[in-house]
């Protein structure tokens, strides 16, 4: 009874009641068919999270960064998996509350009332609405107070026992490590607390740092299996974003008035089609809520002016005042990011420190730190007010609790927090209801075969499910064990590039890349992205789908949330999906299918990019069992050259930064005026000041601008003052010298080979090319003015004319160089046939002979297929005709076009655009929301006109050649939509043109269908088929395969169709009989390891039959995956075979050149293993061992303390 009273007094009973209440709510009242998911929260949707370092689920596999969720993985491989959503939601609310309650009790001397209220404020802080169920954020938010508590205990109270608890916490935080920014912050808490401690003591205690560093080294060693993965993924991301420079960042988002009421996550008030991005953003704009939120924050920051009173009341425990008052300020500074007045410091460190790039969204990364610090000062203020108004403390508490309740209400509303009912194009939700047809498909689909997804997007995938679904990656990738191929925005592997090329090519290529099925997802949200051309090819090439799942009937479609404000877009969903199957599986002809392992009969060598293998297979494909070796120069001189060499043309399609057609006088430029006559004292002073200005110019481009201006003034002086003789010659020489200097400066600032600017990074290319244009225009006008004066002999201006011609030639060369061209790398001498693709087939153009290796460049114009249309002949537009539409003939959908014309408009702007006709589905519901299903069945819809682009272009007042009209050139490339019927060029001349009596002339208007066909050189000659041995293979798990070879009499290539990685190793199984392994240690370690890893094994290994290909030459044996068994470590004592012949095959895959003579037999067994997986086995066992040891030690210490207390 005495112990129970102690528990009640300590508040533990109240904590238990909160835990029970949350558990009852989520385990009893939670909807059974609802799962957490959406956004990046695919952890809850995944079927299992088996800890393999190689993730084979997408685009031929990659390093598995999700393995860091070891804690979640263990949970999902237990019977509790079905309750994982409920468990996590209880954790979401309770863990931050209990951890903050613990911290408040250790730092502050305040009442339980203040502790409960403040801990609740931390757990329900509105900051959390941004990522309500993101595993890293929730774990970090819950763990941060505990890490502070343990750090304070170690440093301020010398409780060294807490080092073990820190060790446990850091190891349980592995789910946070997928967000490296948050995980790093966990380890920075201890040094921060130590620094604040140094501010209050006079003696430096270095032992704390030494012990902490030892702890960090130990944690690093046992967690190296996932640190290796995270570091590798960071390097991939940095390479893909130009060392982080092109990485998305939001360094100063949000508004001050929101940050000061703790709503920093409301960084954007905008949304999509009227739907706000953040669920409670409208709630927090209500007047009552604004008052409540500011009141809560004001109450918290009262702790600063009340510092002396709080200190006098001893509300903060000894020596902790600096820490408590510093945390909120540091948190606010970091959350504000680059906002003034101190944001320049954040900007300075962020831009000059590559390790800070993960902190590209400070308002999310530091929100937990800011919330924690604010909670501390809020607790102090509440306690002070309760003591100050002691007689009315109940009223003070009720008012404070009411303000806090209004402030945190959206977080208490679970359905609003998780956004149960939302529309796909609106906010991101956190729950999904998986349709039954997906469950049916998953139960029948083969997990060992590849599925190409259609439609497919990169980042961000939405599904038209009953409650919607917005996810980062496609559902079949994250929630099934299927191996899928899908488009990606960031290329992290060779396979990503090859898959993207497959989507640009044809469906009939996919069997060669180990893809047996196409999964057409009709429930994929198609309305906000154009489909690929590959979709239209699917039925044409593969026929009807072999398996159908689900059906979109009227009843189902009426239940799908669909709230687009555009009625035509909204109703398009019903028109396109009515009576369509939800999922449709197409199967590739097995005669065109290559299994996971094969031995090629033909070898084709090629040059180009790895992804060009998709096109090389089109232009030259001797046999299904062919391997393409790309850019492997060491083999080109070999006599073992079985097939011709292919050189695929690399397209350099850079638009020229400048061209002679666009070199006209800019709006805003003026011609210099002169007021000081040459040969006067005032003119001499002016020349001196010009020289001083040139010398003091901050950089060479600014001086170039000065030189162009000063040189033009010399010409104007000749005209203004009718200079003759030596005076005129001197000014022309000064003009030539200035223009020559400017020309040389601009020319030397350009890389002549690549037409790229070599400048100070702070100077933009636009500035450079603007100066080139200015040089041409001012020099041209100057020479034109001189040439027009009959009294000036040609001999005096001949040098100036020659200089201008030199400038023109240079600009013309730069323009031509930057245009479209094919680049071929011819790797060896021989006769090469040049092929180009036309209308889906390859046509031979000519044969070229090359005597040596060389790089060949050919202009795209020689091959480009264009469809030119002169829509308006050179004429003057009648300004009374305000707008003109010109129809584009033979308009095609999803096609790239270029529109261009020359125009003359000296005083007004001209509006130009391209419009297209699309079907108007708004009549389906006529704005009433009631769907006319009969109208959908008829399929007769009117046409509406929509713009593709629309912009204003400007006229110019001066011309380079004043004897000719000053025409400007306009050109723009655009793409027609997939649903368009007709296209139009739109030109609008404003009414003010008539008022200014200004003519607007348009000529040479054309629209070209832009098509750059693939072009390739193929060496003359044929292939020599090789006799190949037979193989059979079995997948043990995603990181290990066993291949049996029979009848190998000569060297052969073994191709393994997973993404190339140096970690894939090949071993011989010869001499690996497990019975020959001696020693008790080996046997004991194997049994212990198997006992632990059996948690992840769904069952013992079983064979499920086999498939044979190519008349039995290749046999695929099916079995379930087993993480660890008695054979797992058999290869650990062996040396990898043929490491020097490991190469990239088919642009992405692994291949080895295998020599049977090295093995010593014609029939043998090979093991292909992902070597880094061993790191996981060793480190995870070490982690579990150390954690169990630490727990045992902690329990022992606690028992001894308890016995000591009661004895």
Automatic annotation (TrEMBL):
Keywords: Membrane, Transmembrane, Transmembrane helix. This is Uncharacterized protein. The chain crosses the membrane at residues 12-30, 83-103, 137-156, 163-190, 210-231, 283-307, 319-346, 366-387, 394-412, 1175-1199.
């Amino acid at each position: 009874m005495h112990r129970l009273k102690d528990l009640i007094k300590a508040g533990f009973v109240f904590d238990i009641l909160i835990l029970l209440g949350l558990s009852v709510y989520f385990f009893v009242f939670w909807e059974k068919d609802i799962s957490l998911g959406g956004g990046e929260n695919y952890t809850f949707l995944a079927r299992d999270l088996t800890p393999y370092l190689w993730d084979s689920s997408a685009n031929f596999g990659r390093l598995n960064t999700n393995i860091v969720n070891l804690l979640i993985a263990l949970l999902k491989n237990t019977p509790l998996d079905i309750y994982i959503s409920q468990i996590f939601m209880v954790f979401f609310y309770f863990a931050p509350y209990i951890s903050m309650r613990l911290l408040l009790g250790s730092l502050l001397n305040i009442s339980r009332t203040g502790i409960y209220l403040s801990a609740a404020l931390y757990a329900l802080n509105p900051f959390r609405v941004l990522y309500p169920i993101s595993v890293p954020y929730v774990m970090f938010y819950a763990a941060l107070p505990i890490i502070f508590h343990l750090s304070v205990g170690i440093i301020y109270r010398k409780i060294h026992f807490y080092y073990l608890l820190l060790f446990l916490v850091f190891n349980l935080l592995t789910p946070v490590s997928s967000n490296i920014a948050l995980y790093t912050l966990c380890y920075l808490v201890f040094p921060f607390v130590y620094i604040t401690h140094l501010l209050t003591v006079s003696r430096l205690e270095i032992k704390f740092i030494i012990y902490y560093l030892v702890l960090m080294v130990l944690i690093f060693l046992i967690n190296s299996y996932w640190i290796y993965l995270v570091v590798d993924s960071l390097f991939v991301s940095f390479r893909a974003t130009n060392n982080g420079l092109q990485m998305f960042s939001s360094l100063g988002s949000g508004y001050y008035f929101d940050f000061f009421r703790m709503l920093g996550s409301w960084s954007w008030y905008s949304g999509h089609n009227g739907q706000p991005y953040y669920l409670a953003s409208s709630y927090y704009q209500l007047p009552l809520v604004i008052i409540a939120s500011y009141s809560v924050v004001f109450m918290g920051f009262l702790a600063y002016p009340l510092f002396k009173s709080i200190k006098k009341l001893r509300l903060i425990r000894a020596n902790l005042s600096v820490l408590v008052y510093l945390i909120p300020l540091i948190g606010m500074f970091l959350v504000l990011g680059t906002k003034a007045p101190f944001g320049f410091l954040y900007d300075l460190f962020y831009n000059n420190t590559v390790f800070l790039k993960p902190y590209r969204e400070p308002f999310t990364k530091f929100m937990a730190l800011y919330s924690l610090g604010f909670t501390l000062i809020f607790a102090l203020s509440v306690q002070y007010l309760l003591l100050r108004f002691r007689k009315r403390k109940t009223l003070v508490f009720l008012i404070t609790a009411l303000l806090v309740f209004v402030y945190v209400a959206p977080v208490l509303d679970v359905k609003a927090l998780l956004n149960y009912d939302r529309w796909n194009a609106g906010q991101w939700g956190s729950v999904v209801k998986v349709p039954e047809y997906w469950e049916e498909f998953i139960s029948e689909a083969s997990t060992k075969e590849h599925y190409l997804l259609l439609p497919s997007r990169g980042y961000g995938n939405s599904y038209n499910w009953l409650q919607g679904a917005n996810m980062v990656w496609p559902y079949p990738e994250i929630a099934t064990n299927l191996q899928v191929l899908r488009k990606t925005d960031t290329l992290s592997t060779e396979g990503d590039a090859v898959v993207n090329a497959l989507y640009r090519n044809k469906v009939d290529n996919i069997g060669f890349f180990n893809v047996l099925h196409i999964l057409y997802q009709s429930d994929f949200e198609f309305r906000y992205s154009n489909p690929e051309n590959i979709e239209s090819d699917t039925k044409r090439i593969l026929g009807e789908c072999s398996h159908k799942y689900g059906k979109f009937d009227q009843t189902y479609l009426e239940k799908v949330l669909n709230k687009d404000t555009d009625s035509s877009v909204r109703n398009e969903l019903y028109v396109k999906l009515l009576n369509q199957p939800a999922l449709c599986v197409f199967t590739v002809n097995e005669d065109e299918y290559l299994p996971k392992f094969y031995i090629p009969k033909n070898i084709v060598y090629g040059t180009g990019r790895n992804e060009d293998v998709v096109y090389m297979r089109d232009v030259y494909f001797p046999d299904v069992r062919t391997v393409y070796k790309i850019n492997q120069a060491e083999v080109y001189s070999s006599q073992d050259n079985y097939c011709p060499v292919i050189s695929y043309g690399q397209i350099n399609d850079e638009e020229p930064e400048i061209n002679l057609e666009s070199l006209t006088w800019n709006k805003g430029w003026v011609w210099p005026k002169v007021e000081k006559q040459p040969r006067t004292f005032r003119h001499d002073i002016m020349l001196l000041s010009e020289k001083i200005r040139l010398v003091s110019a901050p950089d060479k481009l600014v001086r170039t601008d000065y030189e162009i201006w000063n040189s033009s003034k010399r010409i104007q002086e000749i005209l203004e003052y009718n200079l003759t003789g030596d005076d005129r010659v001197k000014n022309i020489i000064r003009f030539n010298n200035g223009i020559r200097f400017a020309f040389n400066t601009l020319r030397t600032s350009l890389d002549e080979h690549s037409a790229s600017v070599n400048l100070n990074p702070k100077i933009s290319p636009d500035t450079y090319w603007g100066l080139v244009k200015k040089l041409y225009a001012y020099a041209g006008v100057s020479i034109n003015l001189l040439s027009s004066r009959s009294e000036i002999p040609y001999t005096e201006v001949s040098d100036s004319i020659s200089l201008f011609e030199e400038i023109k030639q240079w600009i013309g060369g730069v323009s031509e160089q930057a245009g479209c061209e094919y680049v071929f790398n011819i790797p060896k001498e021989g006769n090469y046939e040049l092929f180009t693709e036309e209308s889906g087939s390859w046509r031979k153009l000519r044969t070229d002979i090359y005597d040596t290796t060389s790089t060949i460049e050919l202009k795209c114009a020689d091959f480009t297929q264009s469809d030119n249309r002169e829509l308006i002949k050179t004429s003057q537009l009648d300004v009374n005709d305000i707008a003109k539409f010109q129809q584009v003939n033979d308009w095609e959908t999803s096609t790239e076009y270029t529109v261009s014309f020359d125009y003359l408009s000296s005083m007004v702007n001209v509006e130009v655009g391209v419009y297209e006709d699309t079907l108007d589905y708004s009549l389906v519901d006529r704005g009433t929301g009631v769907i006319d299903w009969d109208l959908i069945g008829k399929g007769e819809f009117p046409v509406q006109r929509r713009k593709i682009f629309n912009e204003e272009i400007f006229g110019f007042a001066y011309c380079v050649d004043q004897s000719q009209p000053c025409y400007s050139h306009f050109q723009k490339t655009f793409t027609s939509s997939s649903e368009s019927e007709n296209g139009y060029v739109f030109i609008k001349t404003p009414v003010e043109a008539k008022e200014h009596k200004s003519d607007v002339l348009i000529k040479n208007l054309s629209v070209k269908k832009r098509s750059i066909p693939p072009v390739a050189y193929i060496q003359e000659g044929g292939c020599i088929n090789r006799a190949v041995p037979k193989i059979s293979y079995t997948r043990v798990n995603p990181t290990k395969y066993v291949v049996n070879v029979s009848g190998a009499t000569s060297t052969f290539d073994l191709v393994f169709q997973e993404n190339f990685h140096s970690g894939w190793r090949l071993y011989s199984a010869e001499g690996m009989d497990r019975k020959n392994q001696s020693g008790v240690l080996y046997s004991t370690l194997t049994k212990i390891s198997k006992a632990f890893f059996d948690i992840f094994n769904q069952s013992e290994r079983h064979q499920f039959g086999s498939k044979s290909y190519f008349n039995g030459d290749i046999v695929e044996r099916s079995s379930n995956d087993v993480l660890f068994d008695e054979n797992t470590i058999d290869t650990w004592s062996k040396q990898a075979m043929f490491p020097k012949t490991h190469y990239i095959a088919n642009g992405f895959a692994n291949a080895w050149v295998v020599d049977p003579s090295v093995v010593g037999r014609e029939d043998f067994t090979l093991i292909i293993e992902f070597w880094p997986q061993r790191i996981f086995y060793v480190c995870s066992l070490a982690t579990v061992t150390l954690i169990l040891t630490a727990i045992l030690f902690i329990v022992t210490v606690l028992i001894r303390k308890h016995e000591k207390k009661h004895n």
